[in-house]
Amino acid sequence: MTRRERMEARLERRREWAESRKRKAEAGFNRAAVIADGIPMGQPILVGHHSEKRHRRDLTKIDAGMRSGVENSKMAEHHLSKANGIEHALDRSIFSDDPDAVEQLEAKITKLEAMADKMKRANAAFRKAKGAPGWTSTLGVSEEMAKSIEAEFAKLLVNCPWEKHPYPAYAMTNSRSNIRRLKQRIEEIGRRAKATAAAESSGGMTIRLDEVGSGKQWATITFAEKPEREILNALRSAGFRWGSGSWVGYEDVIPDSVRAFPHSLTIRGKS
After folding, report:
1. Same-domain pairing of 50 and 107
2. In the chain, N or C terminus with fewer CB closer than 10 Å?
3. What number of CA atoms fall less than 13 Å from residue 102's CA on the CB side?
4. Distances in Å between the alpha carbon of 239 and those of 17, 95, 102, 120, 261?
């Protein structure tokens, strides 16, 4: 199951929980309303009357129904809020195990590179024209785009009057950093794909050993598919940590259940 699929499953559970709590809230309010409808408006408890016990019992039930309704309503709102957050993350995120992750990242890089080029050319044109009116005319962009760039700069001057260029240095730096980060993600996805393919060809798992000194070996364990929970729990108990698609820890504490898993072994030497 991919990360997106796991998040989609959590989203569905949150929605189901919210709907369940909503039904319980309605049931609590309805129980309270039915009992309250049988009591005349403003009717006090008639102390000593044969109806006193029933009246007090009804008031307790009304209170319990209202409390149940309020509590379940709050929990329904809580689950809906969590569901909305998960849905927002699904819409905006690119997960490394998405089938089209590389294509999505490349498309994002293309947009960022186009934006970086626009910022660079805009700053150059502004310096050349010394900020004179119509400085965007030399950019070779549409009239609509030119107006948009000038509007962005005017907005910047309102909030940051000390800026001397349409696009400040930090905007250029952030753009380059984001492009570099996305390219590194593509490289990481490629490394994960190669490691997973190696695990598949070796029977389901590979163990790479790197010497770390003092006679110890650092083990990097990669599975072709997510193993059973018992194996994952055994790795965690042995001090292994998950990262970059593999489990890493010391070779001398690899659990027996993992060693028994079909695998190939590679020794790389000192790390």
Report:
1. no
2. N
3. 9
4. 35, 26, 32, 48, 18
Domain count, the chain: 3
Residues 265 and 213 in one domain: yes
Taking the C-alpha atoms of residue 100 and residue 103, their distance in angstroms, rounded to an integer, is 5
24, 58, 92: which is the final residue of a domain?
92
Three-state DSSP at 203 gives coil
Q: Contact 14/83 with Cβ under 8 angstroms?
A: yes
Among 41-55, 131-145, 257-271, top mean pLDDT goes to: 41-55
User: Per-residue pLDDT tens for 141-173?
Assistant: 788 888 887 787 888 778 888 878 888 888 889
| Residue 271: pLDDT over 60 | no
* Co-location of 221 and 144 in the same domain: no
Residue range 66-75, pLDDT digits in tens: 999 999 999 9
